[in-house]
Specification:
By secondary structure, this protein is of the alpha/beta class. The protein contains 14 helices and eight strands. The protein has helices at about 5-10, 25, 35, 55, 60-70, 85-90, 95-120, 150-170, 180-200, 225-230, 245-260, 285-295, 310-320, 330-345, and strands spanning about 15, 75, 125-130, 175-180, 205-210, 240-245, 265-270, 300-305. Strands 1-8-7-6-5-4-3-2 form an eight-stranded parallel sheet. Strand 6, helix 11 (about 245-260) and strand 7 form a beta-alpha-beta unit. Helix 5 packs parallel to helix 13 (about 310-320) and helix 8 (about 150-170) crosses helix 9 (about 180-200). The relative contact order is 0.13.
């Protein structure tokens, strides 16, 4: 059974749980520059380069991943949000991109397999890919709207390097997350497709959009409905939202997406909105209650947390939805027909 089939089979039985934040959990370790840099001999300071810990302090991402699995995660993601050539250039660590991704994926794979062996319940590894700090859709120069720092082919190759290493390390899926630019996501999708073609097998992709305002659009101007129709051709194993806001702010947009997507819905919101110090105060029980409301309405298949969420948040979410049925997927042709009728329904 392929990873896609296995995930779909498990998701038909119950609401699955993914993991929570890495960044805020790593901050709690209060690591020094020496912790991040290790003995790699890089020319720039590494403090804040969370991804490189897979090489210099592997016990940190390992203990965080283990804590999420103990909290009930069925899916754990790799600590590789910024492990790409563009982002690692800030740390002069571009040459380590492959090593970082392979090492991080191996950590997650080993722990996922360890927990699966204990109780026979499958655990999955999602190879996480962030959006980079570049955008293909918008110019960074207000005086030159046509200017782009990079082009589509370059970004695709940046992603391909990361995708290949994550697969080699043992990732089941590639998670293209925090999508603020739909064209960036398409470059990532193309990289995954090409990687799968090279291997001669299906490499399932997970897609997670992030909203830039409460109207429900990302930075490139797409609503959740437009985003779905722009990426549906890639047959994502999951589609959903993460980051930007807490569960309360995402509520109407989850409802909209759940009506039209013919694949699994995965949502992992922030633990509320940050306070004036940039910290997240929403208690695990509060987050769990908010996401449970989506489950009560039959709108979700996979739940987890993003910024500010902890293993305690994941445990609370898992407990809150353990007896609730998962969202039922309608046949693709039904979803297509309903989506086509929506403009007429709205106009009536």
């Amino acid at each position: 059974m392929t990873a896609r089939d296995q995930l779909n089979a498990e998701a038909a039985k119950r609401i699955l749980i993914t993991d929570g934040a890495f960044g805020t959990e790593i901050q709690a370790w209060k690591l020094s520059e020496a912790d991040f840099a290790g003995h790699l001999g890089l020319t720039k300071d590494q403090k804040g380069n969370n991804d490189i810990l897979a090489l210099t302090r592997p016990e940190v991402p390992e203990k965080i991943t283990r804590a999420y699995l103990e909290a009930g995660s069925d899916i754990v993601s790799t600590n590789t949000f910024s492990a790409n050539r563009i982002s690692q250039a800030d740390y002069a660590a571009e040459a380590l991109v492959g090593d970082i991704n392979r090492a991080s994926a191996k950590i997650a794979r080993r722990l996922a397999d360890e927990f699966a062996a204990k109780d026979g319940r499958p655990r999955f590894v999602a190879g996480a890919i962030g959006p980079t700090n570049k955008t293909l859709s918008l110019s960074p120069d207000v005086e030159d709207p046509g200017y782009r720092e990079i082009d589509f082919d370059y970004l695709k190759e940046v992603y391909r390097e990361q995708v290949d290493a994550l697969i080699e390390g043992g990732a089941d899926f590639i998670l293209i997350e925090t999508v603020f630019d739909t064209l960036n996501a398409k470059a990532g999708i193309m990289a995954v497709i090409e990687a799968g073609n090279a291997l001669g097998r299906d490499v399932p992709v997970m897609l997670s959009m992030t909203l830039t305002d409460l109207s429900g659009r990302n930075l490139s101007g797409h609503t959740v409905e437009a985003f779905w129709h722009a990426v549906r051709h890639a047959r994502p194993v999951t589609i959903g939202l993460n980051c930007s806001f807490g569960a309360e702010q995402l509520r109407p947009h989850i409802g909209s997406l759940a009506k039209i997507a013919d694949t699994l819905i995965m949502v992992y919101p922030n633990a509320g909105l940050p306070n004036e110090l940039g910290e997240y105060d929403e208690a695990p029980e509060q987050t769990a209650a908010l996401v449970k409301a989506w489950a009560d309405l039959g709108q979700v298949n996979i739940l987890g947390g993003c910024c500010g969420s902890t293993p305690a948040h994941i445990a609370a979410i898992a407990a809150a939805v353990k007896d609730l049925p998962p969202r039922v997927l309608a046949r693709p042709e039904v979803r297509t027909r309903l989506a086509g009728l929506e403009p007429m329904i709205m106009a009536a």
